[in-house]
Amino acid sequence: MNQRSIAVLPFDNLSSDPENEYFSDGMAEEIINALSKIQSLKVIARTSSFAFKGQKIDVRIIGNKLGVASVIEGSIRKAGSRVRIAIQLIRTDNGFHIWSETFDRTLEDIFDLQDEISLLVADRIRENFGHMDIEDSLVSSKTSNPEAYDLFLKASHHFKRKDLADVKEALLLFTKATELDPEFTEAYAYIGETYLHHAGFNLISAKEGFQKSREYAQKALNINQKDMRAHKVMAYVHLFHDWNWEAAIQSYNQAVAAGLNNEIDFITNYYIFIQKDYDLAIAIAKENQSRDPLHIISYWWLGLCYYLSGRFKEALSAFEESLRIDPDFSEALRWKGLVLGYLGRFEEAFQTLDKAIELTKGEGLVKLDLMTVKVLSGEIEGVLEELENSHYIDPCDPAALYSLMNRPDKAVYFLQKGLEEKSSMMVSLKYWWVWDNIREDQGFLEIYKQMNFEDHKVHRQHPSNQQLVIAQSSQMTEEECEYFLQSLRAKMALEEVVTDTNLTLRSLAEQIELHPNKLSWLINMKLGQNFNDYVNSHRLSIFQRKVIDKANAHITLLGMAYESGFTSKSVFNDFFKKSTGLTPKAWVKAHRN
């Protein structure tokens, strides 16, 4: 297990108003987003962490299910303009509380509070589990208007649910937030992304959806050129509407540089459709699944990557994992049915698609999937007749079926419509195997030329390697190492420093005038210990010296442990046994004359 790994569990809402649930959820998510900016820290995505919402489950079980070494639990009480947040950081191997604190603030200070909590959590993880670089700030202010931020959290709550009614409500609330604060960058960016979903639900046309998305993303960027979500929206607009491949990847890279994490839909589509780099797309989807192991979407998206790559058996396994979590997830059902068809397991395919049709009441693309399986099973004449009598919103859908049946004239007819209407699936023409039957057709080649696929360079860089390098690099020269090691040893020779129970890596770094990132690296890489073990080894030496001094015979062992700087009985006993192989009593018996 990666020791530098964490899950932020949903915070309990202790407010008198149960409607404040959105606020407690929003605060937990903001901390998840902040911690996700730390490159060396594995942070479980919101959806998997929130799978435990409302359940009283031992953190050791949660840690095992999520594959993390620590979890954050918390509670929030919101009353008027004031908020109280209680936070606990807990080890998942033994349930031990590493750190806890309660914060009382006004809503005007909410972003400073989020930053303070995130930095404290990150510091405690680094002190206990090993070196990682941490930026000096993880959360920036979104708005100076508390009421606008409250609306933003409500809107985000609906946006994450992704169903039709919630997407509509999210747009209204994000818009109200910008009315209260016309400089609310992130709210504008979310409006842009929400319009993409409106188009996806056919609430508006794709053309209008992309136009609105561009408009609001640009509004956000006019205020803040480094807004990650606005750049993400622009990446979608450039890829699926403008067909400007270089602008698309440039916007995505800007989004990643600005802090975009755990959102892989754009980049996997780009690698599959524009670069045919199936292995990288699948690797990214697998990494995402490890960060979100209890979410149906992470398995479903992995399945899509396998399917689009033509790896049907592996796609089937991924879709079945998604359905193991939620047997009624209609999207996984319909894709499973499609994959079964390509594997020649037609009876199972039809049964699976029948269930998907029942769940969706026949809406969406499931009937098209059913026709695809019919074609694969040889029922071509019936499908041709059905296609002639059907209406499709996206012309690329019937085009793909006609291509599968090797009917290039009809396929090209609908692809021409896709070209004129700017269908988002036109990006698939370059490599997707669906079009292989008609690739040599003159009409297809003429449409292909108009897509300007050749006007792009190859980009192959895993997004996790595109993070900004923080200004304070932890690397040090040998001369610097020697100088600061001497300073460190001199400071730790002072008993009052070692026995200070409030000693932290940051406070020690300040005392020897060194950036915390550099001190963390120095202790871990040059001395081979994490900060807590390093400090506790000095406290252990003080305890051993005290305990064999007959003048201290009247003091209990635990009392001397506290005098030596240990903060709890369990910390003292665990570290003593780990360091000496003996219990404190056994060691004292062996060493007292």
UniProtKB/TrEMBL annotation:
Gene3D superfamilies: Homeodomain-like, Tetratricopeptide repeat domain, TolB, N-terminal domain. The keyword Transcription regulation applies. It comes from the Bacteria. TPR repeats lie at residues 296-329, 330-363. PROSITE patterns: HTH_ARAC_FAMILY_2 (PS01124), TPR (PS50005), TPR_REGION (PS50293). The keyword Repeat applies. Residues 488-590 form the HTH araC/xylS-type domain. GO terms for molecular function: DNA-binding transcription factor activity; sequence-specific DNA binding. Keywords: DNA-binding, Repeat, TPR repeat, Transcription, Transcription regulation. It holds the Pfam family TPR_2. PANTHER family: CELLULOSE SYNTHASE OPERON PROTEIN C (PTHR44943), TPR REPEAT-CONTAINING PROTEIN MJ0263 (PTHR44943:SF8). This is TolB-like protein/AraC-like DNA-binding protein/Tfp pilus assembly protein PilF. It comes from Algoriphagus iocasae.
